[in-house]
């Protein structure tokens, strides 16, 4: 069973709706046959608004992605279920996969909490406040100013807390991370690695990892080569180095995976497609017990769903 906390399939389908197929084996990193082949249990699908879209077009783009999610991922496949709660996931049959919507960046809600509420009603159950740049909620990891949460950012988090859904800290700059961690009741990092193993502004420093662990959060180790190894070329054992480091800080119960499949141009050697999760599992088996591996792959994220 695999719980993958982040992918960009919806962005790819949005940018190229006619050419790419979710049905074919390897059109994308994640496709229907591959999810089924690997026994995917829960896959999170991010709504990410491409930066060329102007204010006024962004919420509409988010709605279009929700439409694509249903048309291309849910409706054609009887054994992929749209899930919006822990109960939905618990009720999945053995052969079924749960698909959940998430949001990557407040751009989509155009400074309107009502639009966030609409996306919640449409099933979004995890919200990252930024991508790499600044927006109305906070500053992202690559924004030189490095500002914290705005009033609107706090307002968004209040809403997420009230609905008991995740606030995703991946992509936030450090100041915004700390503001968010204080305000959010249910923080996760859907796709981030350890800074001390690979110093990228997208990765988490030791204090951040420890603070997430203290808040009973989960860190989705991500398969982005540039966040795994500073050479930009990564192997499966690089993923182990990041897991090992999080575990060394007391995080054994707080490690998960957020592949970033279909959001990346280059991939880890031996982990170029969802199907190759089995290579990762093979590598994990050299270092960890079955129980630890089950928790990394599924249990640690799944047990933190509070909605
Ligand atoms: Zn991302």
Set out the fold topology.
Elements: E1 2-4, H1 9-15, H2 32-37, E2 40-48, H3 58-74, E3 80-82, H4 86-90, E4 97-104, H5 113-121, E5 124-128, H6 151-163, E6 166-168, H7 174-183, E7 187-188, H8 206-214, E8 219-221, H9 225-228, H10 236-248, E9 255-257, H11 277-284, H12 290-302
Parallel strand pairs: 1-2, 2-4, 3-4, 4-5, 5-6, 6-7, 8-9
The chain binds zinc ion.
GO biological process, one term: proteolysis
InterPro entries: Dipep_AS, Metal_Hydrolase, Pept_M19
Organism: Rossellomorea aquimaris
Please supply descriptive tags for the structure shown above.
307 residues, 7-stranded parallel β-sheet, alpha/beta, TIM Barrel, two-stranded parallel sheet, binds zinc ion, 9 strands, 12 helices
Protein architecture, described:
- The protein has 307 residues and is of the alpha/beta class.
- It has a single domain, classed as TIM Barrel (Alpha-Beta Barrel), CATH 3.20.20.140.
- It has twelve helices and nine strands.
- It has helices spanning 9-15, 32-37, 58-74, 86-90, 113-121, 151-163, 174-183, 206-214, 225-228, 236-248, 277-284, 290-302, and strands spanning 2-4, 40-48, 80-82, 97-104, 124-128, 166-168, 187-188, 219-221, 255-257.
- Strand 5 (124-128), helix 6 (151-163) and strand 6 (166-168) form a beta-alpha-beta unit.
- Helix 1 (9-15) crosses helix 3.
- The radius of gyration is 18 Å and the shape is globular.
- The model has no long low-confidence stretch (mean pLDDT 97).
- Zinc ion binds at residues 104, 171, 191, 260, 263.
- InterPro entries: Dipep_AS (IPR000180), Metal_Hydrolase (IPR032466), Pept_M19 (IPR008257).
- One of its GO terms (molecular function) is metallodipeptidase activity.
- One of its GO terms (biological process) is proteolysis.
